[in-house]
């Protein structure tokens, strides 16, 4: 099963890369606001993934960003973000990924995130987490002042009462640095392999984080909602190397 997921993510990543080369202005459209965009490539990559799953696992359900849910009562459900980081994709930045998670009775059991421009495949199953063929673990940094973190700002940020600027301004003075890659799936995988020590963001959806959160947990990390509970991503996501989790949570909340 894990070989199927890895190959699927890699092939979908290659397709995204090829479609990016041929991307035209008319392939780009808005989902309601000009900040929330979708491309023909998002739809084509999702269709490719769903067809491949239907051929191999016809009884499984699918929850994809672009096409929604099918067979939600199925034992196995695939959670798919065909292109996580669509804004980066449109602007031809390298930080976009294909994110695929397989869930059984609502729990992720295997996942892969392929960042095709970076030539990196992150994946995990019950045995652990890997980047390409190397096993990965979270960092061991314990002091916030030596930590490099990542965050993100939702494209619907201007309409939100809590839009992460307050959290950002509380955390920034306490840490070594911050990055904003624009793909939550990549951010979570970068925490998993120790490049980042933590990541938080609000207003994400399940398909943005299902694969990355599992890969991070299998690499020894900790994932909660923004208040330390289990209601993620509805109540935001806070993801760390585990060691800094409580301290970063306090910093975010100004305690
Ligand atoms: P996307 O590119 O698949 O939309 C960047 O801050 C992160 O937010 C990305 O993972 C991006 O995923 C996600 N994101 C952007 N707009 C979103 C929306 N309207 N709902 C949920 N997630 C969104
Ligand atoms: Ca997407």
Q: How confident overall, as mean pLDDT?
A: 95
The tally of domains stands at: 2
Number-wise, the strands total: 15
Strand fraction: 25-35%
Instruction: Specify the CATH class of the largest domain.
Output: Alpha Beta
Compose a concise summary of this entry.
This protein is α+β, with helices and mostly antiparallel strands and 255 residues long. 31% of the residues lie in helices and 27% in strands. It has 2 domains: 2-135, Fructose-1,6-Bisphosphatase, Chain A, domain 1 (2-Layer Sandwich); 144-252, D-Maltodextrin-Binding Protein, domain 2, CATH 3.40.190.80.
Characterise this structure:
The protein is an alpha+beta fold and 255 residues long. The chain folds into 2 domains: 2-135, Fructose-1,6-Bisphosphatase, subunit A, domain 1 (Fructose-1,6-Bisphosphatase, Chain A, domain 1), CATH 3.30.540.10; 144-252, 3-Layer(aba) Sandwich (D-Maltodextrin-Binding Protein, domain 2). It has 7 helices and 15 strands. A hairpin with a 6-residue loop joins strand 1 (28-30) and strand 2. The N and C termini lie far apart (44 Å). The mean pLDDT is 95. Calcium ion is lined by residues 42, 65, 81, 83-84, 86. Adenosine-2'-monophosphate binds next to strand 5.
Which key phrases capture this entry?
255 residues, 31% helix, eight-stranded mixed β-sheet, single chain, globular, 7 helices, alpha+beta, five-stranded mixed β-sheet, binds adenosine-2'-monophosphate, D-Maltodextrin-Binding Protein, domain 2, binds calcium ion, 27% strand, Fructose-1,6-Bisphosphatase, Chain A, domain 1
